[in-house]
Amino acid sequence: MTPFLAVDWGTTNLRGWRIGREGDAEAEVELPLGVSRLAGQTTAECFAKAVRPALGGEGLPALLCGMVGSNLGWRTAPYLPCPAQARDLLQHLVTVEDVPAPVRIVPGLSCKGLGGLPDVMRGEETHIIGWLALDLARQKGSHLICHPGTHSKWVRIIGGSITHFATAMTGELFDVLRKASVIGMGSVDNDIPEFGEGLKAAGDGGALSVRLFSTRARVVTGEADRNRAPSFLSGLLIGSEIAALVRMMDVQEGETIHIVGAPRLAELYGIGVRRSGRDTSIEDGEKTVLSGLKLLVELGALNDA
Amino acid sequence: MTPFLAVDWGTTNLRGWRIGREGDAEAEVELPLGVSRLAGQTTAECFAKAVRPALGGEGLPALLCGMVGSNLGWRTAPYLPCPAQARDLLQHLVTVEDVPAPVRIVPGLSCKGLGGLPDVMRGEETHIIGWLALDLARQKGSHLICHPGTHSKWVRIIGGSITHFATAMTGELFDVLRKASVIGMGSVDNDIPEFGEGLKAAGDGGALSVRLFSTRARVVTGEADRNRAPSFLSGLLIGSEIAALVRMMDVQEGETIHIVGAPRLAELYGIGVRRSGRDTSIEDGEKTVLSGLKLLVELGALNDA
Question: Which of A210, A219, A223, A226 to mutate to test the interface with B (most CBs of B within 10 A)?
Fold first, then answer.
């Protein structure tokens, strides 16, 4: 295949790889330079001075996905309406002008969600087409992917096309409550029994703002240890997400929920999903995003670059 | 009645009054010296140096309610289990030792809430008994009070006794999301049409973490104005609370929801409750907390002080 630089450029972080002729990652870099953390540099400067030198391969074209295509990023790529598939992304790549070697950005997706409210994604679409490309059998039938994170995405795929999705602000709620809440929490966030108590406390996922207060009430009444409250909160938020989204995304009895993400978080979601009585498969997010970017390049994303 | 100092001492603020022989407030003070904001002073120092001098009435006994009775406060007062009424609070007042003039603190309440999880209140119990004392007819029958705030309380009263309650962390969620969220929000939080859109977007109150993301998605898709996002968020959170709590507290068709709180917030909740098809009454929180503290003093709270 065409050698190229693959970059997953998010809000807080970026990861890049140099992909060789055989499709192997020949170099790799991870930097805390998400589009909201550029510390005065432009995206272009950051790419030229930090990303390219770290990956080598001068003059290679680059394919980027994630928040780098938002209005905080390098160029604004559109949100394509669902249903959408890999070829739609390919047709709406955005080309960055005025760079020494070609750079293109993958567009995001939008859909109408709960109560007609809009929903959007940027970056996850590349994971999804990458997940589909990892196994030809996935091109057929209906699949449900859960991509946990700051803004978790639950995505329905039918016949190789993303038909709709929903976002839960779970990771962000955890972060802001942990940092800023008067709930008053300790430091332990990997206590699996407390995480399990949180999953149980999530119930049917309703009345979240009421259940959240129990994180505090359990501590002040002496029923729980303050230090382990973050583990309880994590279970409560993840359990609420799973309960609400399984219903919202019409997950069928016996249907497997495919979790795509960073291994530690994917594992926690796996525990939650299995306790809710569904099967899971887990795929590492690094593998799926690389698979998606390579698929787009194989389909011609950088052909005339 | 016995002249005394009445103090509602919360987490971020305190309000105090000097109550005269006729039950009138002869002096009043409001200070940003909640128990989490004492800036190195002890509660005792703050009371002696800031509260007493501001109110005058040297040597008068004082009755305090709120977070001043928590482990962050002056003395830890217990959480009495529900059902509970004014006489129960009276029997469990906590006396502060080593002060030149008598000081007593009203205990809080606890109950078993959603899914058997514990719930607690401190300060609101005094509003509730005060609300009951404002009208003798309220001692009979069943009433539902909504006390909005950082941690909103919904309280069921039957035959003059608080039988159970639930807390929604609505105000705190609004604050932490507004300050710390990557939702990215503007500054306008009093736009009533956007607030109404938020109320509508709350739907049945379920899947809150999904609905919250729409605050952002509406802006990035151009459907809404970023500057007015706080008003939308406020409506979304308040609407979700009302939908969830009306169900959880078994509010009957045609039952009036009695809102007790600061006028501006009470008004927003009033809009939300009326749009959900229920009647409201609104009582100013200053009036109810003073009524509660005076009731306890009339029942003998400071008799042997």
Answer: A210
Q: Are the beta carbons of B117 and A218 separated by less than 8 Å? A: yes
Pairwise CA distance, residues A166 & A118, whole Å = 9
Q: Which of residues 27-66 of A touch B (CB under 8 A)?
A: 36
Chain A, 133 to 162: residues with Cβ < 8 Å from chain B are 150-151
Residue range B53-96, pLDDT digits in tens: 999 988 999 999 999 999 989 999 999 999 999 999 999 999 99
**Angle CA(B216)–CA(B220)–CA(B226) in degrees, nearest 5?**
65
Q: Is A17 helix (H, G, I), strand (E, B) or coil?
A: strand
Enumerate residues 6+ apart whose C-beta is below 8 A from A280. Answer: A256, A257, A258, A259, A269, A270, A273, A274
Partnered with residue A105 across adjacent β-strands are A64, A94
Residues 6+ apart with CB under 8 A from A275: A196, A199, A239
Share of chain A above pLDDT 70, in %: 99
pLDDT per residue as tens digits for the range A225-259: 999 999 999 999 999 999 999 999 999 999 999 99
Instruction: Inform me whether the C-beta atom of residue A241 falls under 8 Å from chain B C-beta atoms.
Output: yes
For residue B86, which of B57, B128, B45, B28 has the smallest C-alpha distance? B128
Question: Contact A182/B172, CB-based, under 8 Å?
Answer: yes
Instruction: Give the integer Cα–Cα distance in Å for B9 and A293.
Output: 58
Does ipTM top 0.90? yes
What predicted TM-score, i.e. pTM, was given to this entire model? 0.95
- State the pLDDT at residue B184: 61
Q: Which of B148, B122, B128, B6 has its CA nearest to residue B66?
A: B122
Give contacts of B149 with chain A, Cβ < 8 Å: none
